[in-house]
Amino acid sequence: MSDAVKVLLVDDDEDDYVLTRDWLMEIESEQFELAWVDTYETAVEAIGRCEHDVYLLDYRLGDRNGLELLSVALCSGCKAPLILLTGQGDLEIDLKAMRAGVADYLVKGEIDAKLLERSIRYAIERKRAEVTLLEAFDELELRVEQRTAQLKQAHEQLQDFFDNASDLIQIVDLEGNFIYVNQAWRRSLGYSSAQMQHLNFREIIHPQERDRVLEAWQRWQSGAGDANLETMFIAQDRTAIAVEGSINCRWEDGKPIHIRGIFRNITERKLSEARQAQLLKEIEGANQELRDFAYIVSHDLKAPLRAIGSLATWLATDYQEKLDAEGQELIRLLVGRVQRLHNLIEGILQYSRVGRIREELVEIDLNELVSEVIELIAPPEQVTIRILSPLPRVWCEPTRMMQVFQNLLSNAVKYTDRDSSPARDGDRKQGNVIVSCQDRHPYWQFSVADNGIGIDPQYFEKIFQIFQTLSPRDESEGTGVGLSIVKKIVEMYGGKVWVTSQLHQGSTFSFTWPKHKVEHR
Ligand code: ADP
């Protein structure tokens, strides 16, 4: 490929071509390859092929001129520089040509080899610089477009994120005018875009809350930091919407700009809390009534029952001679039933006292308490009660704790002592009852284990219900209240009670008790 600069001369005068060719040959520093066309039409065709590095256009081309050719060349996308050649003193053409985009303008009479070479060189250099600049500009434009697209995408993602958030998001200016709210906000509060334009944050705060929130508003503006806020907004349909969230102020150059808030609609939660509180109140009321009822009824039943008992005993003693064996047996049964009824009433009274009559909480040493209970129970010879591990000190109502151990230990003794199954050596089986404690942080776990009659697993739940006993009514002197009292007391302190047992092997009753001081429920 030749390095020569390809020049096309468009001139209808052959003399000018010869002259130009001679000038170009004169130039030693550069090689030129000169082509020549002499009509406007052939020039249009040649320029359209874009084969040349530079074009020299004569202004006069028959009834056309070089400026027309110039505009055709530029329209056809000609990238090479065009130099216009004119006669002397056509200043007007010079200006027009420059505006139209020629690279240079040469007056024919003043041209010599040097001037031509310089003009061609400068025109080519300028054009190259121009092309490089244009390319750089195109590149820049492309980057701006890409960046704009990325920003648009990021903006859309952000918008999508806010709109799909379930929280209510808002931005207001320092006067309280809304700058932005997301869809969840609109959905919850129901204001239209047109309403939003005239809406002020102050107007959506529930009247009861307004003073408090506006006071806080001053603090947020003065940069008192982030603030949690639970309040009530007023929706478009005038319903109150309970919200909780956080508010913070955006600062720029040390000045507050706007206030952002992110809230959660907690109306449902608040309603269900209120319903729950109401329900609890009702249950508490009903419970209280029931406790009072149980107490009053049981209390009032005791007096006539005592009278019946006395009458029956009196009958049995004073009329002993007048009654035959059957009559005496019936009276014995009557006294027994009265006693049983008395025990039941006593059980109800005890049960109703738990939680109704409250003692002060004290920290007590369970070793002492359990020893005292054992002494009270006074187990028969064939039953031994042992405390396996040292027991801790716990916070409790002493009477209630005594009841728990008394009921568990007396059951253990009762249902061990009752176990008449002979041991292998033929003697009556020795009853063993063991009290122990384990650390189950944050609870203590206490167990009362015996080697008595045991309980069928199908009754593990049933025995904790009030009045539930496993032996037939007539045989049992128990009322079925003891374990239900234990359960009630333990649960009142947040603990649990359960049993593990195997028939004829023994039972272990366990319960947990909090280590720290708990006000009972
Ligand atoms: P009560 O002992 O007065 O009948 P409780 O509520 O204390 O009432 O006990 C309910 C039932 O659970 C008892 O009737 C008995 O059948 C069973 N039970 C309780 N403790 C034991 C135990 N240690 N061994 C076997 N059975 C027991």
TrEMBL record:
SMART domains: HATPase_c, HisKA, PAS, REC. InterPro entries: CheY-like_superfamily (IPR011006), HATPase_C_sf (IPR036890), HATPase_dom (IPR003594), His_kinase_dom (IPR005467), HisK_dim/P_dom (IPR003661), HisK_dim/P_sf (IPR036097), PAS (IPR000014), PAS-like_dom_sf (IPR035965). Keywords: Kinase, Phosphoprotein, Transferase, Two-component regulatory system. The modification 4-aspartylphosphate is found at residue 58. CDD domains: HisKA, PAS, REC. Residues 6-123 form the Response regulatory domain. It is an enzyme of class 2 (transferase). It catalyses: ATP + protein L-histidine = ADP + protein N-phospho-L-histidine. Its EC number is 2.7.13.3. It comes from the Bacteria. Residues 154-224 form the PAS domain. One of its GO terms (molecular function) is phosphorelay sensor kinase activity. The keyword Phosphoprotein applies. The keyword Phosphoprotein applies. Residues 296-517 form the Histidine kinase domain. NCBIfam families: sensory_box. PANTHER family: PAC DOMAIN-CONTAINING PROTEIN, PHYTOCHROME-LIKE PROTEIN CPH1. This is histidine kinase. It comes from Desertifilum tharense IPPAS B-1220.
